[in-house]
Design brief:
The complex is a heterodimer.
Chain A lengths: L5 E8 L2 E8 L6 H11 L7 E6 L5 E4 L2 H10 L4 E7 L10 H5 L4 H8 L23 E4 L9 E5 L10 E12 L2 E13 L4 H5 L7 E5 L2 E2 L5 H10 L4 E6 L19 H6 L15 H4 L5 H8 L4 E4 L23 H15 L7 H18 L12
Parallel strand pairs in A: 1-5
Antiparallel strand pairs in A: 1-2, 3-4, 3-5, 6-7, 7-12, 8-9, 9-10, 10-11, 10-12
Chain B lengths: L1 H18 L3 H4 L4 E10 L4 E7 L4 E6 L3 E5 L5 E5 L6 E7 L4 E6 L3 E10 L2 E11 L14 E6 L5 E6 L4 E5 L4 E7 L1 H5 L4 H4 L7 E6 L6 E6 L3 E6 L4 E7 L4 E6 L5 E6 L4 E5 L6 E2 L4 E3 L10 E7 L7 E6 L3 H4 L3 E7 L2 E7 L3 E7 L13 E6 L3 E5 L7 E2 L12 E7 L4 H10 L12 E2 L9 E6 L3 E6 L6 E7 L11 H8 L6 E3 L14 E7 L4 E6 L3 E8 L3 E3 L3 E5 L22 E3 L2 E11 L6 E5 L4 E5 L3 E6 L4 E7 L11 H34 L1 H6 L6 H17 L3 E4 L12 E9 L8 E8 L3 E8 L12 E9 L6 E7 L27 E6 L2 E6 L4 E7 H5 L3 E10 L7 E9 L3 E6 L5 E6 L6 H6 L1 E2 L4 E7 L2 E8 L8 E2 L8 H4 L20 H21 L2
Parallel strand pairs in B: 17-21, 26-36, 41-43
Antiparallel strand pairs in B: 1-63, 2-3, 3-4, 4-5, 6-7, 7-8, 8-9, 10-11, 11-12, 12-13, 14-15, 15-16, 16-17, 18-19, 19-20, 20-22, 23-24, 24-25, 25-26, 27-28, 28-29, 29-30, 31-33, 32-64, 33-34, 34-35, 37-38, 38-39, 39-43, 40-42, 44-45, 45-46, 46-47, 49-50, 50-51, 51-52, 53-54, 54-55, 55-56, 57-58, ...
Classes of the chains: A alpha+beta, B mainly beta.
């Protein structure tokens, strides 16, 4: 992966483009990098808001060592940076929405380079989250009983493991015959640093009731395991949290039926185990976009048109015969070298070039990640 | 629930006929799950019986099943209600009735009944011997031996307590005239009494000439000739040795007793002397050193010479005490049949005509724990007779199986010629009335010892046709076998190896992993554990030639990998003689020599494809040239290189750990014992701390044990171990590169959900020698869910699977539709998906795991033909899951049709062994030695239909309580509408059979 110690980066400022290289193995501190940017663009005393485009085309901020290193590691090998004057900055540009649906840099640039007059007042900034892609959400709050929680984990494109374990157990249910002990499936462990833990929406001893809309009652631990793994790219689990104090209580008439003790600590605060982020229930469903679910629901397998990846024995294979072949890694190398040699030149580029670069970057990313699922069919 | 489902089907079937209903309604009657017949050798047999009049043989098993066999195709199965071992079986000779004794001391009477021209076996009566009043111990009335009087009205029951009871047959009414020790001892001389008990009754034999007299043998050695009518001891034979068995000589003048010291005694019956002290002769055949008991002895007179003595056991304790032997003695001829498994029981087929003077046995039938051996006693040298059924499938462990439907008669005949010829089978009672199967079906089993066995699977009896050994292609250590047997002839006892059950493999690398046969060209590909892929062709001539060897490096210069597993098998150098049959064309060896995981053959293109855990290769066996090799290893996969040996190491490690755990718990147990002793507490002050420490340790230990089973939830990733394993390969003539030109393609699927599709340039037949085959990667598909790809199949424009090679060119199948767009069906462990070709865009899919929580184990494309019309058929995707249930989906719409529970989910080997036929039948192993055959198609059912003519008064018809659940054989009229009632019964039959399957597998 680290075949190129020199890291070319295209930096964009206003309509100005700079291209320079960094040593990937020694990225240094954010402050140094910030200084470098100011130096490269010869704007030593201007406050900047630094953003970058990640592999998904999302515009994400760089404002500390952590996300700076993250940005460097996602460069493959090109890293596109977007610099904005702090006073002109449009914070709403950051996030998933920014680039996922309007992936072309043209659109991105349009967002960033909007004439000042058209811009609305920037919203109140609470904080700049490190990573703006959704990692989890609580869904279907309106249709589920208050005691249940439906959690969606976005494994999609994440390096982070799902990071939890389930076990057999038994729970007590109220039935017409009275209390009855029934077998159930429970979360037994959360892996530190895993997706499940980091969301704070799942906890040990939460009872799993459904997996992607299918009830687990009557299913064995192995069956439920298989179901979860089969849905792992877009896992929706309905749990009955062991800790019932943090349930979302709906406003309105039905609230009266809920216990009054509960409603006291609900409302605007929502407790999260690891990183307590205050958000209102209305916020919780905000990230969830139905059309996005459709997309990931209709998972796409990656199809690569034939290239010379396999080496036939005894004779050289006739060239792939596909007009636009997906270049395999070795083949891509000369092309890559060419770019590296150009890398040193600071050149202003037209939008077209940028768009080309962007595409290359995407292709490169896919190749590097050895054909990991990406939700994209690559037919060039 | 099952019954309901069946009912539904029958109803809908009726409706179909009545209303001339649409095809969609009729669909319900395509499918059907019906366990039809078991093939192979019953697991854990425990009893044997023979009816010389009807010429039927019965075998009882430890799971409580009774299986009756006659002529090939004649089979009955009965299952006791309780899963108790069958300890004895007796035929009520000529009546078609069977008496069985179970381990739980209950007697059961079975009857072969007739219904609509077919016979079946049902239980009509059962009886438990009551405890003797005043004696608490139940073992006293435990039945040790049974004697059925020849006129079949009286059953004598010998017990552990030494009593003999008499039961009226067939009513099982206990007659009030039991015989106990005291009555016998009255006549014994004083010096024999000496206060010792006579012990259990060991043998009961009816006098061959005088029906009222029976011979009773007691464990202590006393034998009594008892007159039933006068209730009087006729003769006493004062044996001193512990008795094992008794047998009369045909004349009734002498009898023979066998004993625990390995000897047998011949006694003369002399009515003038009521008390015989000494036997006429006394022999210990394997003396003089201590010998094991002679468990059973038979004495058969022959017209031509000396009597034939057959005895089991009696081997010298020190030198051959562990052998399973049966000795045949006649004059100076002495043969010690040396078996590989325990002798359960044996009988001879001999003349039963009362008028004849001699027994003149024609054959000896020996039931062993793992096989049935029949010896021809009429032919000098006593050769074995190959059995047409009850074949020990597991003679070497089955490693894979492969089924071929509709075998062309030409190939069939050639295979039969190559195999052994069948001689006369002595057990030929009853007659099969099942219709001759329209198609010839072959079942090929690959075994651990490198053999491939060909079985006739067209009918009820799975008959061995031909055995192919691949071991002779390689240099192995097992070549010195011949010299050993020759040396063996000189030694004493004169051992003769008999039977084919041999569970010990000479070299595990020889094991067969995959088989593929082209039924039109007679080409066979056999692939094994050490990466060997052998291409063979069927030759009618003996041949003597060198073996062509080619190696294919599947690593393709991938660095950083070293193979730590076994070496490849060294092929024999120089020319090798091959018998008529399948002879090798070329041997391809994969490097590294990992077990072959997938293989396929296209005889028309002269290509084979094979895959291992490292990659796959394509080989042109006509030019003997490799075409392609592709490494599928993921860079992070280290386990792929370990080979099987290191896994053995880890097993060792885990064993060691578990032993440590046991030792630890033992140590702590001792500690507890010490603490409970107050003196030690005082003596060592340190032990004062130990209770707390120990309690904590115990708690921790308990916690460790109590820790619930948990499962990690993680998405599959490319780094998962063994992700590069090639799971399936297929050849197809289809559209890969564009929608207008079709051509040969090759598809490979891996464990990590990758599919590689290659376009092949295959030269035409004429140019085969000049031009080489070329392969170009056309498509690479990465399934997003990354589950292992279980199967790939290409469907034509009408959605039908492509025909097999040669089928179209020889006008044996309709040409596939090349106009409409083709599609490829990819079945992974988690879902099925149909992609359009050549674009590979998803068309239909079914996510099985996400819906049901089960994973796909086996899939097959099956043609279901309608019951009412042969013209109408549909394609179905049949899938067996890890939960043992079978799902049927429509193709290519992938709509779920039906689901059945088939195999228990705990029965992993059963699920792994399952193989489907193209017509909707299937086989799976219910024990190491038995295949269960089942049918999903309502049209194609293979089951025993047979008839036995019995000669008996129909006195039992009144007594018979006809419980449907006992009705274990029911016939099927497939095209009859009005057999609904019978079919509902058959669901009970099914349940009973399921129970049998459960009990039979240990």
């Amino acid at each position: 992966m680290n075949r190129n110690p020199r890291e070319p980066s295209a930096v964009e400022f206003g309509a100005e483009f700079r291209r320079f290289s960094l040593d990937r193995s020694k990225p240094g501190k954010f402050d140094e990098f910030y200084g470098l940017l100011q130096h490269v663009h010869r704007i030593p005393n201007v406050d900047l808001l630094v953003g970058y485009a990640d592999v998904h085309g999302d515009l994400l901020p760089i404002n500390n060592d952590g996300n700076y290193h993250k940005a460097i590691t996602t460069a493959a090998p090109l890293l596109r940076l977007f610099l904005q004057r702090k006073e002109e900055a449009d914070y709403s540009a950051f996030g998933t929405e920014s680039l996922t649906r309007k992936k072309t840099p043209a659109a991105l640039a349009a967002v960033l380079l909007r004439p000042d007059g058209n811009r609305k007042k920037p919203p109140i900034i609470i904080s700049l989250p490190q990573d703006f892609r959704p990692v989890s959400s609580i869904i279907d709050v309106d249709i589920l009983p208050e005691t249940h929680r439906r959690v969606r984990l976005y494994k999609h494109g994440q390096e982070k493991p799902l990071g939890f374990y389930i076990r057999d157990g038994s729970s007590v249910r109220v039935t017409p015959q009275g209390l009855e002990k029934v077998p159930g499936i429970f979360i037994s462990r959360l892996v530190p640093g895993g997706l499940a833990e980091s969301t704070g929406l799942l906890a040990v001893n939460d009872e799993v009731l459904e997996v992607n809309g299918i009830e687990v009652a009557g299913k064995s631990l192995d069956q439920v395991t298989d179901m979860m793994i089969a849905n792992s790219h877009n896992l929706i689990i309905t749990v009955k949290p062991a800790n019932q104090r943090n349930n979302i209580v709906r406003r309105g008439g039905r609230d009266a039926s809920g216990s009054s003790g509960r409603s006291s600590d609900s409302g605007t605060s929502f407790y999260m185990a690891s990183n307590a982020i205050a958000m209102t229930p209305s916020h919780i469903i905000q990230n969830f976009r139905p059309e996005e679910e459709e997309d990931s629901e209709d998972e796409e397998d990656l199809v690569i048109e034939g290239g010379g990846a396999a080496i036939p024995i005894g004779h050289v294979a006739a060239s792939a015969g596909v007009t636009c072949s997906m270049p395999s890694l070795p083949r891509y190398e000369p092309h890559l070298n060419l770019r590296t040699s150009n890398g040193g030149m600071a050149a202003s580029a037209s939008m077209d070039t940028v768009s080309h670069k962007d595409q290359d970057m995407e292709v490169q990313a896919v190749a590097r990640r050895s054909l990991e699922e990406d939700g994209t069919v690559i037919t060039l | 629930m099952k019954i309901l489902r069946f009912l539904f089907f029958f109803c809908s079937f009726g409706a179909t006929l009545m209303f001339q209903a649409s095809l969609s309604l009729e669909r319900n009657f395509f499918f059907f799950l019906f366990l039809t017949v078991e093939h192979g050798f019953p697991n854990q047999p425990s009893a044997l019986a023979y009816d010389p009049q009807l010429q039927l043989m019965a075998i009882g098993t430890k799971s409580g099943a009774i299986k009756v066999y006659g002529a090939p195709g004649v089979e009955f199965t009965g299952l006791h209600k309780d899963t108790a071992a069958v300890t004895q079986i007796h035929f009520l000779s000529g009546q078609g009735r069977i008496l069985s004794l179970l381990d739980d001391n209950s007697l059961h009477l079975w009857e072969i009944g007739g219904k609509e021209g077919h016979s079946y076996l049902e239980e009509v009566r059962s009886f438990s011997l009551p405890g003797r009043p005043g004696i608490e111990s139940t073992s006293a009335t435990r039945v040790t031996v049974l004697l059925l009087k020849l006129n079949l009205d009286l059953l004598c029951v010998g017990t552990e307590g030494g009593g003999v009871h008499f039961l009226q047959l067939p009513t099982f009414s206990l007659l009030d005239r039991s015989l106990f020790h005291d009555e016998v001892m009255q006549s014994a001389p004083e010096e024999y009494k000496c206060g010792k008990s006579l012990g259990p009754v060991e043998a009961l034999q009816e006098h061959p000439q005088q029906a009222e007299k029976i011979l009773i043998g007691y464990s202590r050695g006393l034998v009594v000739l008892w007159d039933l009518n006068t209730r009087h001891v006729d003769n006493l034979f004062l044996g001193k040795q512990q008795l094992e068995s008794l047998v009369w000589e045909r004349s009734g003048n002498t009898f023979v007793s066998s004993h625990s010291d390995g000897g047998y005694l011949v006694w003369t019956v002399n009515s003038s002397t009521p008390c015989t002290h000494q036997p006429t002769t006394s022999t210990i055949p394997y003396g003089p050193f201590p010998c094991k008991a002679v468990n059973k002895i038979l004495w058969r007179t022959t017209e031509t010479g000396a009597p034939l003595v057959l005895l089991s056991g009696g081997m010298p304790r020190a030198s051959y005490g562990d052998r399973h032997c049966l000795t045949i003695l006649q004059d100076s001829t002495h043969v010690t049949l040396d078996f590989t498994s325990r002798v359960i029981d044996f009988f001879t087929v001999h003349c039963i005509d009362q008028e004849k003077e001699y027994d003149d046995p024609t054959s000896l039938v020996v039931l062993l724990e793992e096989e049935l051996v029949v010896i021809d006693l009429a032919t000098p040298g006593w050769p074995t007779i190959p059995s047409p059924y009850l074949a020990p499938l597991h003679s070497s462990a089955i490693t894979c199986s492969y089924h071929i439907s509709n075998v062309p008669s030409k190939l069939w005949e050639r295979i039969i010629t190559a195999g052994q010829s069948q001689s006369d089978w002595p057990i030929c009672g009853g007659r099969s009335v099942a219709p001759e199967s329209k198609q010839k079906e072959l079942l090929l089993t690959g075994h651990e010892d490198g053999t491939v066995r060909f079985w006739d699977a067209s009918g009820v009896s799975l008959q061995p046709l031909y055995k192919l050994s691949t071991a002779n292609i390689f240099q192995t250590d097992c070549d010195h076998n011949d010299s050993l047997t020759q040396a063996g002839e000189e030694e004493w006892p004169p051992f003769r190896k008999v039977g084919c059950f041999d569970p010990y493999s000479d070299d595990p690398r020889l094991g067969i992993q995959k088989i593929c046969l082209c039924k039109y060209s007679g080409k066979l590909v056999v692939a094994g554990t050490a990466g060997q892929v052998i291409v063979m062709y069927l030759s009618d001539e003996k041949s003597d030639h060198m073996i062509d060897v080619a190696t294919v490096d599947l690593l393709q210069d991938r660095e950083g990998f070293t193979w730590k597993g076994h070496d490849r098998l060294p092929p024999k150098t120089g020319s090798v003689v091959f018998a008529p049959g399948f002879q090798p064309v070329v041997l391809v060896q994969c490097i590294p020599p990992a077990a072959v995981t997938a293989v396929t053959l296209h005889a028309e293109w002269n290509l084979i494809a094979f895959g291992t855990s490292h990659g796959f290769g394509l080989f042109d066996y006509h030019r003997r040239a490799p075409v392609l090799a592709r490494c599928t290893l993921h860079p992070n996969d280290s386990l792929a290189m370990e080979g099987p040996l290191s896994r053995v190491k880890s097993l060792k490690k885990s064993l060691r750990q578990s032993f440590r755990r046991i030792r630890k718990s033992r140590v702590s147990g001792k500690k507890r014992a010490v603490i409970s002793n107050p003196t030690s507490k005082v003596s060592s002050p340190q032990s004062l701390f130990s209770p707390v420490q120990e309690a904590n340790a115990q708690l921790a230990e308990q916690d460790a044990e109590m820790a619930p089973v948990q499962r990690r939830i993680e998405a599959r990733s490319a780094d998962d171990s063994l992700s590069g394993v090639v799971r399936c390969l297929c050849f197809a003539d289809t559209f890969l590169r564009d929608g207008t030109h079709h051509g040969p393609t090759m598809w490979a699927g891996t464990n990590s959900g990758s599919v590689y599709a290659y376009a092949l340039e295959v030269p035409s037949q004429e140019k085969f020698s000049e031009q080489s085959v070329e392969a170009v990667l056309g498509k690479e598909i990465q399934l997003m869910h990354r589950a292992p790809v279980v199967s790939i199949a290409v469907l034509d424009g009408r959605g039908n699977p492509l025909p097999e090679p040669y089928e179209v060119s020889r006008d044996l199948a309709k040409a596939p539709d090349m106009q409409g767009s083709h599609s490829v069906l990819i079945a992974s462990e988690e879902q099925f998906k149909v992609f359009m070709l050549p674009k590979v865009s998803a068309k239909t899919k079914f996510k099985l795991t996400a819906h049901e929580g089960c994973r796909v184990r086996k899939v097959a494309l099956v043609t279901f033909t309608s019951v009412s019309s042969e013209e109408y058929c549909e394609n179905g995707l049949v899938c067996l899951t890890n939960l043992g249930d079978i799902h049927v989906f429509s193709v290519p719409a992938l709509r779920p049709q039906v689901r059945y529970d088939c195999i228990r989910k705990e029965d992993i080997s059963g699920i792994a062994s399952c193989v489907f036929t193209k017509t909707g039948q299937g086989f799976y192993l219910i024990s190491p030695s038995e295949y269960e055959r089942f049918s999903l198609s309502a049209r194609v059912i293979t089951e025993p239909l047979c008839q036995v003519d019995v000669d008996r008064l129909h006195d039992l018809t009144v007594l018979r309580y006809s419980k449907l659940s006992h009705c274990l054989h029911l016939q099927f009229e497939h095209n009859e509408v009005f057999s609904c009632v019978i079919k509902i019964c058959s669901s009970k039959y099914l349940q009973a059979r399921m129970k049998l399957g459960r009990g039979g597998w240990r």
